[in-house]
Amino acid sequence: MKRLGISVALVCVLLGAVQAQQLPAGVQKRIDAIFDGMVDRWIVQMDKWWHDGQHEQLINMTYFVIVFDPHNIEAYTNAGWLLWSSDRDDEAVALYERGVRNNPDVYDMYYELGQYYYIRKKDYAKAKVYLEQAIKYPCEWFVWNTLGHTYARLGERQKAVETWQELLRRFPMMPVDQMEAVRKNIRDTVTSILEESGQQ
């Protein structure tokens, strides 16, 4: 543990020195390779801490990892979940928001924030904001599914149906059991809309 801490400190000092000057491309490439190697070693150690239940060490190391690799989505998501599941919500949100700032053109961090507000806070209006942003980028089927459920929770049932229909159109190869669940959501929601409008 002590050796790892010393390595982290040395790399941080080196990174500061490197960032303060312009280096020849060959030198920069070698330095980048060294940093990548360090990040890979840290990730192995973080995985060990995860399985050993040493979550505080994992969270702390996450902040070092994202300095060197601000596009490491898994680092944000794992530490964010650990933070909010330990009732450290403000820290979790700050970490997720940092992930959004560092990765504004991919869906992942918008989804993580949307899911946080949906599951943890049950603040569906905030979840909607982030999930609508997430689907602007290539994403997985479950992002659309969560957005559909968010609309349904907000009483925007027609938008929920349209979102689930778009999900089925975009992801014809999604898992069959999930496809059937989405179709059931559509049927149940349409039935509710019709009953409420007196058309059934």
Question: Any overview of this molecule?
Answer:
The chain is built from ten helices and no strands. It has 200 residues and is mainly alpha-helical. 26% of the residues are buried. It starts with a helix and ends with a helix. Residues 1-10 have low confidence and may be disordered. It has a domain at 1-69.
SSE run: HHHHHHHHHH
Q: How much is the radius of gyration in Å?
A: 21 Å
| Uncertain stretches | 1-10
Calculate the mean pLDDT score and round it. 85
Taking the sheet with the most strands, its summary is: none
Classify the oligomer: single chain
Structural class category: mainly alpha
**Which range does the strand content fall in?**
under 5%
Helix tally?
10
Properties at a glance:
200 residues; 80% helix; 0% strand; mainly alpha
Short characterization:
The chain is mainly α. The chain has helices at 2-19, 25-52, 55-68, 73-85, 89-102, 108-121, 124-134, 141-153, 157-170, 176-196.
Task: Give the topology.
Blueprint: H1 2-19, H2 25-52, H3 55-68, H4 73-85, H5 89-102, H6 108-121, H7 124-134, H8 141-153, H9 157-170, H10 176-196
